UniProtKB/TrEMBL annotation:
GO molecular function list: O-methyltransferase activity; protein dimerization activity
Taxonomic lineage: Eukaryota, Viridiplantae, Streptophyta, Embryophyta, Tracheophyta
Alphabetical list of PANTHER family matching this protein: O-METHYLTRANSFERASE
Keyword S-adenosyl-L-methionine: yes
Descriptive protein name: O-methyltransferase
Chain segments annotated as coiled-coil in the UniProt record: none
C-alpha cells in the first residue's frame, strides 16, 4: 500500500473536516427553519435588526425556545445568512432575498420558495438515494426514480401539487433575479439588436417583458410550450411581444438573436445540441448579426472555492433531480461546436452565471468547427454595477438596498446555502459505494474510470461519477490532480480498516447516521418545532423516541446501533494522541474518576491506564452500560462503579468529563459539576476537573466556527444539549461553585488535547456531514417568514423581536438565536460582531431576495422573491433524490436520480401530475432563479419547459428599440401575459431544439444548464441558424453559471452545489469554462453576473 498515512495532526484535522462534511446539511436545514418561521421578515419589520428575544416575541414563539433560537441565529450568522453585532441579528444581502417584497427595489425577488424547495423532503430523499442510483443502469434521475414523477413536470404536479408549485416558484426566483440589472449591464449589446426570440424553457416571459420595456425598438418573440404563459400575461404585454407556442426542439421563431436564459442546464448535452441547432436555424448569418445569447452557469475551476463549490453543488443537485447539468467552458464549447456554431464568447460573468454569445457562420463545415485560440476572447470578469437604488422608499424602513453586485452575489450565496446539503449527500453516496476504500486499495489514487471498474458500476455512470468526485474534491473530501482523485486525511477516516495505525477509527457510521432520514426528518421539522411550546427536541417530537436511548432501540434497532457506532467514532478518535499531548499533565495525577456519561464507553480509561500505569482509575457508568467481558479484559486495573453522575461521583484527585457536558442543558451541567466538586480535594491538594469539550470561538477560522455552529444546531435538533462559547462555559463553572478555570489547549475541534490536522479533519467531517442543516435552516427561516419580518422591522431585528413579530412561542427564543447565528455565519443574514445575547440580525442581499414582494412593494424592479427557490431546493422530493445518489450511481440509467426516484421529470408535466404543489413551487423557483437581473436581451428562449418571459419583458422595457421574440414551449406563456406585453414582444411557440426564430441575437438566459451537452449543442445549433453572420452582428448571448475554480470559495461552493443539485434532479449540469468551451466554437465571457457568466458565442 503506497497511500500516504496521515500524521497525527492530519488525522485529527481530518476528523474535524469529516464532521463538517457530514453535518453541513444543517446549514440549509437551519435556513429552512428561519424561512418557515419568518425570521427575515420579522427582523426587517423590526427595523432590520433584532435580538433573539425580540424575535421570540415578534414570531410568537415559546419563551423556552429562546436559547435554541440564539443558537440557530448564531449558526446562520456565522454562515452569512444574517449579520450580527452584539446580540442583534441583522438583514444582510442573503436574508434580503428572503423578505416578502422590498419597497423601492424592483430587482428584489423573494427567494423563500427556493429555500423551502431546496431543503424539502423530496429533494432530501432523492439525494439520499444517490448511491443506489449509481448502481442502477437507469435513465431516470434519482428524483424521478424515487418519486415516479419529473421535477417541474405535470407528473409531479399530479403527485404533489404543493411541492410542484413551490418548485416552480423557486425556479422563478432563481431565474429572474438580476433581469433588471442585466438591462443596464448589457445596454450596448441590446441597443444593437433589432429582433430577438426569447425561449422560455421551464421559465416565464419576464425577461422578454423587461427587455421590450427597456428597449422598445426590439421586436421580441417569446417561444413557450403550449399553455405555459397564460392569456392574462400575454395581454399585459400589450401586443409588444409576439407569443409563439411551440417546442424549442422542433422549431424556434426566426429573429436576429435567440436568447436562452437558464435553459440549457436543464438538459443533457444531446438535447442542448438539438436546441442550439434550432437556434442556429432561427438566426441569420453572422454577417447579418445573427447570434444566440445564452445565460447559464459556467463552472470555472479558477473561481473562488466558494463559487466553485456552489456550481458543483448545483450540478450534483441537477444530477439528482433532473437530467440536466452544469458545465464548464470546455463542455459548453463542445455543445456549441456540435450544434454547428463557428465561434462563441463569454460576454460577462453575471452572478454565478455566464452570458455566452454564439455566432452563426454557416460557411464553415461541421468538421471544422473548433475555435482557434487566437479567436477566443475572455473579457474582464470584474463587474461594475451602477444605477441601482441605494435606499428603500418605504416610510418606516431605512434599510439600505443592496447594490446590483451585492444582490447578484447574494443570490449565489442563497443557492449555496439552500443546496449545501448535497455535499453530505454526495459524501454519503461515496461512503455507500465504498469509494474511499476503493481509492485506498488502488494505491491511494484513482481515476473515475478506474473506480467504475473497481466498484462494478455501470459504465454509463462514468460522467456522473466524475461530477460527484469533483464536488467532493472541491469540498476537501479528496484531493485531485488532473483526472486522479486521491485519499487525503478526511477520506482516510472513511477507509475500511487501515493496517498498522492504531489511531484509525472508521467514521462510516458517523456519516451514515448524520445523513440518515431520521436526522433529516427532524431537521425538516424545525420550523414546526419552533412554533410549539414543547420541551422535547425536534428529533424526539418527530419520532416519539430519544436519540441514543432505549426508546429508540425499541423503535429502530438498526438506526440505534448505527447512532451508537457513530458516537463511538466521534468521541474516541484522538485518545492515543491525547496521551502524548498531555503526558506532563497525566504523569502528575495519582487517581482519576472517568465518567462515561449516559452514552459513552470506557476506552479513554483503558488507554490511560495502559499509558500511565501509576494512575488509580475508577470508571463511573450507568448500570449494565459496560458488559462483564469488557470489565474482565481490563484485568482488574480499573475499578468499575455503577451509578448516576447526577447523584454521586466516586472521590479522586481528578474527575474527567470527556465530551459529556454538551449532551446536557445548562441546569444539568451545573448539577453534574456540583457533584464533581464534591468528589475532588481542594486546589492546594491537586483537586481538579478535566473537561474535554467543544468551545465555540468567534475569532476562529470561518470553517471551524461554522463546524461548531453546525454541531450546535444538530444537537439542538436531536437532543437537549448544546455547544457553548467560553463565556457560556464560564457561567456554568461559576454557578457550580468553581472559582477559576483555564483552557489548556485546543484539541482539534475541542478545547483540550490536539494533534492539529487530524482533529481539524474531524471538524471538517462534521461540517461536511451536517451541511444540509444550512439549507434546512434557510428553509425554516423562509417558512417562518424571518427574512420579511427583519425587513419589516427596518432591516434588522433581534431574536426577541422576531419572536414577537412572527408570533412564535417565547420558549423558542434561545433556539431561534442558534438558528439565526448559523444563517448569519452562512451569509443569509448579517449579524453584529459580538455574539452576546442581544445580537441583531440584519437583512443581507441574500435575505433581501427572500423578502415578500408585498413588503418591498414596487420600489425595486430587480427584486424577485426567491422563497420558492429555497423551498424547492430543500424540499422532500429534492432531498429524497439527493439521498438516493449512491443507488442511482449503481444503476446504468440515463434518467437523473430525481426522475428515477419519483417517476416524474423535474419541471415536467409528469411532475405536475404527480405533485402539483411541488411542480408549481419548482416552476416559481425557476422563474426567480432565472429572472433576477433580467434587464437584458433579444430573441429570448424560455428554455427548459419551465422558464418564463420575464427577461424578454425586462429587455423591451429597458430597450424599446429592440424587436424581441420570445420562443417558448406551447402553452408555456399564457395569453394574459402576452396581452400584458401589448404586442411589443413576438411570442412564438416551439421547441428550441428544433427551431429558433431568426434574430440578430439569440439570448439563452439560464437555459443551457438544464440540458445535457448534446442537447446544448442542438440548441446552439438552432441558435446559430437563427442569427446572421458575425459581420452582420449575429451572436448568441448566454447567461449561465460558469464554474470558476479560481474564484472565491463561497462562489465555487455555490456553483458546485447547484451542479450536484442538477445532477440529482435533472439531466442538466453546471459547467466550467472548459466545459462550456467544448460546446462552443469561439466565445468570450463578457462579464461575471452574480453567480453567472455572460457569454457571447460565435
Amino acid at each position: 500500500m503506497s497511500a500516504q498515512v496521515p500524521s497525527d495532526a492530519e488525522l485529527l484535522q481530518a476528523q474535524a473536516d469529516l464532521w463538517r462534511h457530514s453535518l453541513l446539511y444543517l446549514t440549509p436545514m437551519a435556513l429552512r427553519c428561519a424561512v418557515e418561521l419568518g425570521i427575515p421578515k420579522a427582523i426587517y419589520n423590526l427595523g432590520g435588526g433584532a435580538t433573539a428575544a425580540e424575535l421570540i416575541t415578534a414570531l410568537s414563539l415559546p419563551p423556552s425556545k429562546l436559547p435554541f433560537l440564539r443558537r440557530l441565529l448564531q449558526l446562520l450568522a456565522a454562515s452569512g445568512v444574517f449579520t450580527a453585532d452584539d446580540a442583534t441579528y441583522r438583514i444582510n444581502a442573503v436574508s434580503y432575498l428572503l423578505l416578502d417584497g422590498v419597497p423601492g427595489d424592483d430587482r428584489h425577488i423573494d427567494h423563500t420558495a427556493f429555500v423551502l424547495t431546496a431543503t424539502s423532503a423530496r429533494y432530501m430523499d432523492a439525494a439520499m438515494d444517490l448511491a443506489g442510483w449509481f448502481k442502477k443502469d437507469v435513465a431516470a434521475s434519482p428524483f424521478e426514480a424515487l418519486n415516479g414523477a419529473t421535477l417541474f413536470h405535470e407528473s409531479m404536479e399530479s403527485l404533489d401539487a404543493d411541492f410542484h408549485g413551490a418548485a416552480k416558484a423557486a425556479l422563478e426566483a432563481h431565474d429572474n433575479l438580476g433581469i433588471e440589472i442585466a438591462m443596464r449591464e448589457f445596454r450596448d449589446l441590446f441597443e444593437g439588436i433589432e429582433s430577438t426570440t426569447y425561449i422560455c424553457g421551464y421559465g416565464d416571459d419576464k425577461f422578454a417583458r423587461v427587455l421590450v420595456k427597456a428597449f422598445p425598438h426590439i421586436r421580441c418573440t417569446v417561444l413557450s410550450y403550449p399553455n405555459m404563459i397564460d392569456a392574462a400575461t400575454k395581454k399585459a404585454a400589450g401586443g409588444v411581444i409576439n407569443y409563439v407556442e411551440g417546442d424549442m426542439f422542433s422549431s424556434i421563431p426566426p429573429s436576429q438573436t435567440v436568447v436562452l436564459k437558464l435553459i440549457l442546464h436543464h438538459w443533457p448535452d444531446e438535447d442542448c445540441v438539438k436546441i442550439l441547432y434550432q437556434c442556429r436555424k432561427a438566426i441569420p448569418p453572422r454577417k447579418d448579426g445573427g447570434k444566440v445569447l445564452i445565460g447559464d452557469i459556467v463552472i470555472d475551476y479558477s473561481d473562488s472555492k466558494t463559487m466553485l463549490e456552489t456550481h458543483l453543488l448545483m450540478d450534483v443537485g441537477m444530477m439528482t433531480m433532473t437530467k440536466g447539468r452544469q458545465r464548464d467552458e470546455n463542455e459548453w464549447r463542445q455543445i456549441f461546436m456540435k450544434a454547428g456554431f463557428s465561434d462563441y464568447k463569454i460576454l460577462k460573468k453575471f452572478g454565478a452565471r455566464g452570458v455566452f454569445e454564439t455566432i452563426n457562420n454557416p460557411g464553415k463545415s461541421s468538421t471544422n468547427l473548433f475555435a482557434d485560440k487566437s479567436h477566443t476572447t475572455l473579457h474582464n470578469r470584474s463587474t461594475s454595477y451602477h444605477g441601482a437604488p441605494t435606499t428603500m422608499s418605504a416610510e418606516a424602513n431605512t434599510l439600505p438596498v443592496p447594490s446590483d453586485a451585492e444582490l447578484l452575489q447574494a443570490q449565489a450565496d442563497l443557492w449555496r446555502h439552500s443546496l449545501c446539503y448535497l455535499t453530505p449527500m454526495a459524501l454519503r453516496c461515496a461512503v455507500e459505494l465504498g469509494i474511499p476504500t476503493a481509492i485506498y486499495n488502488l494505491g491511494g489514487g484513482a481515476t473515475a474510470a478506474e473506480l467504475i471498474t473497481a466498484l462494478s458500476l455501470p459504465s454509463s455512470k462514468l460522467p456522473f461519477l466524475r461530477r460527484l468526485l469533483r464536488l467532493l474534491a472541491a469540498s476537501g473530501v479528496f484531493t485531485a490532480d488532473a483526472t486522479t482523485y486521491r485519499i487525503n486525511a478526511v477520506s482516510y477516516l472513511l477507509v475500511d480498516g487501515v493496517a498498522d495505525d492504531d489511531r484509525h477509527i472508521n467514521h462510516k457510521a458517523f456519516v451514515l447516521t448524520a445523513t440518515s432520514t431520521r436526522y433529516m426528518d427532524a431537521a425538516m421539522g424545525l420550523a414546526g418545532w419552533f412554533k410549539k411550546d414543547v420541551a422535547a427536541p425536534a428529533f424526539e417530537d418527530v419520532h416519539g423516541a430519544t436519540l441514543l436511548h432505549e426508546s429508540m432501540e425499541s423503535l429502530d434497532a438498526d438506526f440505534h446501533g448505527a447512532a451508537k457506532a457513530a458516537l463511538e467514532a466521534h468521541d474516541n478518535l484522538g485518545i492515543e494522541i491525547a496521551m502524548r499531548e498531555f503526558r506532563d499533565l497525566f504523569e502528575g495525577i495519582e487517581s482519576m474518576t472517568y465518567c462515561c456519561g449516559a452514552y459513552g464507553d470506557d476506552k479513554f480509561a483503558r488507554v490511560l491506564v495502559k499509558a500511565f500505569p501509576h494512575v488509580r482509575c475508577t470508571v463511573l457508568a450507568y448500570p449494565n452500560m459496560i458488559d462483564a467481558a469488557t470489565k474482565q479484559a481490563a484485568g482488574g486495573v480499573i475499578n468499575y462503579v455503577e451509578g448516576d453522575m447526577f447523584s454521586f461521583i466516586p472521590p479522586s484527585q481528578t474527575v474527567v468529563l470527556k465530551l459529556i457536558l454538551h449532551h446536557w442543558t445548562d441546569e444539568d451541567c451545573v448539577k453534574i459539576l456540583s457533584e464533581c466538586r464534591k468528589a475532588i480535594p481542594p486546589r492546594k491538594d491537586g483537586g481538579k476537573v478535566l473537561i474535554g469539550d467543544i468551545v465555540i470561538d468567534y475569532s476562529d477560522s470561518k470553517t471551524m466556527l461554522e463546524t461548531h455552529l453546525l454541531i450546535d444546531v444538530g444537537m439542538m435538533t436531536m437532543t437537549k444539549g448544546r455547544q457553548r462559547d467560553e463565556n457560556e462555559w464560564r457561567q456554568i463553572f461559576m454557578k457550580a461553585g468553581f472559582s477559576d478555570y483555564k483552557i489548556l489547549k485546543k484539541f482539534g475541534a475541542r478545547a483540550v488535547p490536539s494533534d492539529a490536522e487530524l482533529l481539524q479533519a474531524q471538524a471538517d467531517l462534521w461540517r461536511h456531514s451536517l451541511s444540509y442543516l444550512t439549507a434546512m435552516s434557510l428553509r425554516c427561516a423562509v417558512e417562518m417568514g424571518i427574512r420579511t419580518a427583519i425587513y419589516n422591522l427596518g432591516g434588522a431585528a433581534t431574536p426577541a423581536e422576531l419572536i414577537t413579530a412572527l408570533s412564535l412561542p417565547s420558549s423558542k427564543l434561545p433556539f431561534l438565536r442558534r438558528l439565526l447565528r448559523l444563517l448569519a455565519a452562512s451569509g443569509v443574514f448579517t449579524a453584529d460582531d459580538d455574539a452576546a445575547t442581544t445580537t441583531t440580525y440584519r437583512i443581507s442581499p441574500v435575505s433581501y431576495l427572500l423578502v415578500d414582494g408585498n413588503a418591498i412593494g414596487g420600489g425595486d424592479a430587480r427584486h424577485i422573491n426567491h422563497a420558492s427557490l429555497v423551498l424547492t431546493a430543500a424540499s422532500a422530493r429534492s432531498v429524497d433524490a439527493a439521498m438516493g445518489l449512491a443507488g442511482w450511481f449503481r444503476k446504468d440509467a440515463a434518467a437523473p436520480p430525481f426522475d428515477e426516484l419519483h417517476g416524474a421529470t423535474f419541471f415536467h408535466e409528469s411532475m405536475a401530475r404527480l405533485d402539483a404543489g411541488f411542480h408549481g413551487m419548482a416552476n416559481e423557483a425557476l422563474a426567480t432563479h432565472d429572472n433576477l437581473g433580467n434587464e437584458i436581451s433579444l430573441t429570448y428562449c424560455c428554455g427548459a419547459a419551465c422558464g418564463d418571459d420575464t427577461f424578454a419583458r425586462a429587455i423591451v422595457a429597458a430597450f424599446p428599440h429592440i424587436r424581441c421574440t420570445v420562443l417558448a414551449y406551447p402553452n408555456m406563456i399564457d395569453a394574459a401575459t402576452k396581452q400584458v406585453v401589448g404586442g411589443v414582444i413576438n411570442y412564438v411557440e416551439g421547441d428550441l431544439l428544433s427551431f429558433i426564430p431568426p434574430a440578430q441575437t439569440v439570448m439563452l438566459k439560464l437555459v443551457l444548464h438544464h440540458w445535457t451537452d448534446e442537447d446544448c449543442v442542438k440548441i446552439l445549433s438552432q441558435c446559430r441558424k437563427a442569427i446572421p453572420s458575425r459581420k452582420d452582428g449575429g451572436k448568441v448571448l448566454i447567461g449561465d453559471i460558469v464554474i470558476d475554480y479560481s474564484g472565491s470559495k463561497a462562489m465555487l461552493e455555490t456553483n458546485l452545489l447547484m451542479d450536484i443539485g442538477m445532477m440529482t434532479m435533472t439531466r442538466g449540469r453546471q459547467r466550467d469554462e472548459n466545459e462550456w468551451r467544448k460546446i462552443f466554437i469561439d466565445y468570450k465571457i463578457l462579464k461575471k453576473f452574480g453567480a453567472r457568466g455572460v457569454f457571447e458565442v460565435d
